[in-house]
Batch of 2 targets.
Target 1
Amino acid sequence: MATTPNKAAVATKPAAAKASQQGFVYLPLIAGWLVPGAGHFLLRKWIRGALLAASIFAMFVLGLAMQGKLYTGAQDILDLLGVVGDLGSGLLYVIGRTIGLGAEPVKTTVADYGTKFIVVAGLLNVIAAVDAHNLRTGRKSS
Amino acid sequence: MIHPSHFAAVVIFAVFASTVFGITMRDTPSRMVRYGIYCFTLFVGSAIVLSWVMFFIAR
C-alpha cells in the first residue's frame, strides 16, 4: 500500500524556509565581521561563536604581542593586501588603530610573524562571517 | 611582549586556524573536530617536512 506524504510536514517545510529568509539576512554577516563570533551568537550557535571569537581574538592579540604591525596605508600592492587582510578583523582593527597599537616598524622575525598573525586573524574572521551568513540563508544546514 | 620560537609560532597558528577551518568547513560537530585535527596535522606536519627539506638544501 502506497503511503501518502505527511501533509503537515510538507506544508511546514516551505514555511520554515520562508521564515529563514525573513528579516535582514546580512545582519549575521555584518555583525560577524565587526565583532568576531557575533554572527554565530545572533544565530544562537553559542559554542561555535565562542570558539571562533576566542581563536580570532587570540590570534589578533598574539600578533600585537609579537610586535606585529597594523597596516595603515597602501604604499604598494603588498601593503594594500595587508590593509585588506587587517580590515577583516572589523572593530578590532579600528580599535587597534585608534589607540595606536601595532604602529612600530617590523624589526625582528617574530614581529614579522606577528604581522602575519594579525592579517590571518582578519581573513579567518571573514571566513567565519561568511559561514554565519550561510547558516542564516540556509545554504549551510547546521 | 612575547617572543615564541619559530616552532611554537607554527603550533599556535595551527591551533587557531584549524579551529576556524573545522567549524566553518563542516556541518556536524564530530566532522568539525575531525577536520580540525586533520588541518592541524597538515599545518604542523608540512612545516616540519619543509624545515627538513630546507635543512638538507642548505647543507
Target 2
Amino acid sequence: MGSSIERLSLGRLERYSRGLRGFWRSYSRNRPAVMGLAILFLLTATAVLTDLLDPYNPFGIYPSEVLLPPSFSHPFGTDDLGRDILKLVMFGSKTSLLVGFSAVFIASSIGIIVGALSGYYGGRVEDILMRLTDMLLIIPNFFLILLIVALFGSSLRNVVLVIGFMTWPGTARLLRSTFLSLREQEFVQAARVVGASHLRIIFRHLLPNGIYPVIVNSSLQVGSAILTEAGLSFLGLGDPSLVSWGRMLSIAQMYVRRAWWMAAFPGAAIFITVMAFNLIGDGLNDALNPRLRER
Amino acid sequence: MQPIVKVKGLKKYYPVEKSWIDKLLSRERRWVRAVDSIDLEIERGETFSLVGESGSGKTTTGLVLMQLVEPTEGEILFEGRDIFSLREEERRRLRRDMQMVFQNPYASLNPRMTVEEIVGEPLTIHLGLKGEERRGRVIELLDIVGLNPGKYYVDRYPHEFSGGQRQRIAIARAIALRPKFIVADEPVSSLDVSIQATILNLLQELKREFKLTYLLIAHNLAVVRYMSDKLAIMYLGKIMEKGVSEDVFQNPQHPYTKALISAFPDINPDVKRDRVLLRGEIPSPIAPPPGCRFHTRCPFRLEICERDEPMLVEVEDGHLVACHMVE
C-alpha cells in the first residue's frame, strides 16, 4: 500500500517537474522574456528588502540636501525636500507591484467567473453578462476610475479595487471565446456522458484547457494596472501616504527645468517595469501556446 | 422479452438561424430535420447498426440516446422507462447503464488529464472512488482493454498514445461502470485500417464478457457486416430499410440499400453483381424532397414516389422496407 502511494505521488511530481522543465525550455528560448523575468525578480527583491533592511524614512525632510544632482552619495540625486531619489524609487516599487498584482488578481477573478459562466451556459446568462461587459468596455476606463477615486477617496485600497473592478471585461471576453470553442469538443461531451456536473466540466475540463490565454493576458494587465496607478498619482489621486512613482513624477513637474533627475528616474522605473511585464506576457504566450511548443 | 432500448417516433429538428431578411419579411422559422420520426427496437445482447451517409441523422440519433441532445418529439425507453421523463438524478444514474464511445479518440480525451483521471472520472462521479482504490480499478480496466500492464500507462497523458491506444482508453472509460448498453459512434473510422480490426475485436470480446448491447453507428459496410446482428439504413433522417443484418445484405430490397451494397467490393472477383449507381448528392435536410425522400436520386423512380411517402412494410420476418416498389 504505502509503496504504491509513494509511487503515485512520485509519478505525479516527476510529471509536474518534467512539465515545468519543458515550459522553461521553451520560455527561456525567448531572451527578452527572460530579461523581463529578471527585472521582475529584481523589483520584487527591492520591494521586499527595502522595507526590511533600510530604516530610511521616505517622508523625512533634509533641508541641507535639496535638489542635489546625481552623485556618489545620491546616485539618482535628491528631490525638493532633500530625499534620496534612488531610495524613493525603491520604495515606489512596492506600491507599484502591490497595485499591479492585487488589481489584476481582482480583475482576473471576476473576468474568469463572468467569462466561464457566459461561455459555458450561453443563452440568457451570456446575454446579460456580456451586455454588462460591453457596457464597461465602452466607458472610457481611465476617466471612470478617475471619477470614482475622486469621489470615494484615494486610499491604496480604493485604487486597487477600482482598477480591479474596471478592467475585468477583457479577461471575461477572452475566456468566453475560448470556452465557446472548447465546449463543443468531444471530450466535453464525453464528460457529460460520464455524468460530470456543470461545475466539474467547467473546472476540470474547460478551465485547464482554456486558462493559458488568460494567464498571458493577465501578465500584460499587470503592466497596464501599474501604469494606471502611476497616472492617477500623477494627477494627484494616488494614496498620499505612500511613495509612488506617479506621484514623484507629479512633483517633479514643478522642478523639471532645474532637476531633470527628479522626473527621469521614476519615469524610467515605470517604463522598465511595464516593459518587463509585456516581455513576460510575450514569453508566456510563446511558451504556453501548445502549437508553438511542440517544436 | 422486452427490448433494452426502444425508440418511438423520435424526431430531432434543429432551428435554422433566421437572417435579418427573414425577420424583416417575418418568414417562418425553418428547421433542419436531422431525425424525422424513426422507430427502433434493440434487443438485449445484440449489436444494432445504424448505417447511412453523413447527414442521414445516425449520429444525432446516438446523441439523443445518450441524452446529449433533447429530442423534439418522441420517446426513448430504456428497460421500459422513458428516459426523458425521468428526474435529473435518475437521468444521471442512468449513465451507469448507458455509455458511449466517440468517433475521434484524438478529440474525446481531455489533453490535460492523465489516463487515471480520464478512466477514473466515472468511478469518482458515480461510485465515489478515490486514491488507491480508483487507481487499482483503472489499472484493471486498462488491462481489460489490452493496455497491459495497466500500471505502466495510468500516469500518462493522451498525447503519449497512438490513435488505437487512445480508442482503447476511451473504451476503458465507457466500460468503467459496467454499463449494459454502449453507443459506439463510428468507433474505428478515424483509425488506421490496420488498427481497425483489433479495436472491433476488442469490442466483440467485451460484448461477450460483459453481456453488452451495442448501438453501432457506421458507414463502412464491412464493419457493419462483421459486427452487427441487426441494422437499419437511414437516409435524410428516415429509416429506409431495417432487419436482420444477413437478410439485408443477402436480399436488399430498397434501391438505396442496393446501391450501398453494390458499391461495396466483394472479396470474390467472379461474383456477378448488378451495380446500382447513384447520382448527385444527398439533398438538404432543411427542405427534404416531398414523397419518398430518396426519389431525387432513385434510378427506379415512379410517379407515386414524388407524391406519397412510403411506409415501412414487412417483406419477410422482421425485414422492413420503405419503398413503393415493394408494396
